[in-house]
Amino acid sequence: MKIRRLKSVCLSLLAGGIMFTSLAAEAARTIRVTSQLGGNHPLVQNIQHFKDEVEKLSNGEINIEIYDSAQLYKGSEVPQAVSSGSVDMGLVLIDEYAGTLPATGIFSVAFMFPSYEVLAKAAALDSPIRTEIDELIRTTGTRVLWWQDYGPVQLLSKGSPVIEPEDMKDKKVRVLGKPSGDFIEALGGIPVKIGGSEQFIAYQRGTVDVGMTGTTALQSRKLYEVMDSVTITNHAQTEFLMVINDKLWDSMSDQEREWMSAAAKSAEDILRAATKEENLASEKFVEEETSMEVIRLTPEQIESWQKAAAPAIDAYVKDAGEVGQRLVDEVRKLY
Fold it and tell me: Which CATH number belongs to the domain containing residue 249 in this structure?
């Protein structure tokens, strides 16, 4: 009898332990994150940093699952996927919002940011420019957790180099979205939207005559193998956003949001601090380790590009209305 009673107690304790473990497992929150970039990309490594920080701060109460290399969604599909709740979080090039929210495209307006320092101020956490853009994006059902700085944009070419604005006339040019497309149209070129991961093949096949990409992509995507020269125009800035479904965010406890916010700030700070050096390092690599010609423009040449690109700023303001004009004015206060 005692043996039976002891066995019964043990089984009850075992069942209770299993139930407790099950409840603990259910209590842990799992957040799925989509990225169109590969696992070794600096931006995905930055997401990994966020994951590590969240799981450490929450002591495992929040688990982050990263699905990179467009396993779930392509870059253009991420805004809709996150806003609908099909996935919890995602990496988005800010230009992806410019089609429906034109004002968000200001960071891609050609020659809007004359230096990296101006960009950093415009994209700072307490910047009125960033605050307004974040609020615009919230109207889509998503919330921006942090910004990922990817550095300045350059022009690539095969055959004849791009030096003067006139060199763009009648050329097919890869663009990131509408703002960069307006820039190319102002120069008499033909904009062709091509995704970042599709660049190598597009340049190799001659789909476009001129490329447009961030400096580090020259190295990471080996674009020096299919293009002859790069002109350091620094004419726009590439900003990515990490966004989360707004309803999911609202469902979190204050403690969970605190963990997420702290990890997001850590991820943003560490990336922005390293971006400038990484871009300069990639520029040096291309110049010294590859056959690609690196062309640096004189101040006079930069001025001629700025004048030629002026209609792109007008086009941005026309599309974005009062909000766009307000953001342009705010950026110019930083000069």
Answer: 3.40.190.170
Q: Is 14 inside any structural domain?
A: no
| CA 154 to each of CA 11, 116, 231, 295, 297: distance values in angstroms, whole numbers, following the listed order | 68, 14, 6, 10, 12
**DSSP per-residue string spanning 290-312:** SSPEEEE--HHHHHHHHHHHHHH
The number of folded domains in the chain is 1
In a domain, 47, yes or no: yes
**Domain housing 247:** 28-332
Q: Which two tokens stand for residue 274?
A: 């390293």
Contact call for residues 200 and 221 (beta carbons, < 8 A): yes
In a domain, 212, yes or no: yes
**Is 18 within a domain?**
no
CB atoms within 10 A of CB 168: 23
Per-residue pLDDT of the chain (335 residues; tens, 9 = 90+): 444 554 454 444 444 554 444 444 445 899 999 999 989 888 999 999 999 999 999 999 999 999 999 999 999 999 999 999 999 999 999 989 998 999 999 998 999 987 778 888 998 989 999 999 999 999 999 999 999 998 899 999 998 999 999 999 999 999 988 889 999 999 999 999 998 889 999 999 999 999 999 999 999 899 999 999 999 999 998 899 999 999 999 999 999 999 999 999 999 999 988 888 889 999 999 999 999 999 999 999 999 999 999 999 999 999 999 999 999 999 999 98
The continuous run of DSSP H or E covering 67 comes out as strand 62-67
- Angstrom distance (rounded) from CA 236 to CA 154: 8
Rg for the chain (alpha carbons), in Å? 24
Q: What are phi and psi of 188, to 5 degrees?
A: 85, 15
